[in-house]
Amino acid sequence: MANHKSAMKRDRQSKVRRLRNRIMKSRMKSAVRKVEEALLAGAEDQAQEALKTAVPIIQKTASKGTVHSKTASRKISRLTKRVNRMLPLG
Questions:
Q1: CA 25, 61, 73, 31: dihedral to nearest 10 degrees?
Q2: How confident is the model at residue 42 (pLDDT cuts 50, 70, 90)?
Q3: Which of 8, 34, 61, 85 has the most CB atoms less than 10 A away?
């Protein structure tokens, strides 16, 4: 346990940040999972709608610093590619 006043504050802050990061990461994973479930079900419209809701959530998670910005970009790119591949050309 921390003994100095500044160390106690740092401990409190890290607990709050840990919870906030966990919430954001969980929200992001759920959004990604919804897109993947729609892809597995073969529902094109549902997959597109899930992607539209997932992209801002992933970007917000990166902007808060919970995940790295390049990780978020990679996730968005791969999900978009998978949804676009499912759709017919034209």
A1: 50
A2: confident
A3: 61
Q: How far is CA 81 from CA 4, 23, 30, 52, in A?
A: 51, 26, 19, 13
Q: How many structural domains is the chain composed of?
A: 1
Q: Which residue has the tokens 């994973």?
A: 29
Q: Which of 60, 87, 58, 61 is nearest to 75 (CA)?
A: 58
- Enclosing domain of residue 20: 5-86
Dig out the tokens for 49 from the structure.
């709608």
- Predicted confidence at residue 84, as pLDDT, reads 93
Task: Tell me how long the chain is.
Answer: 90
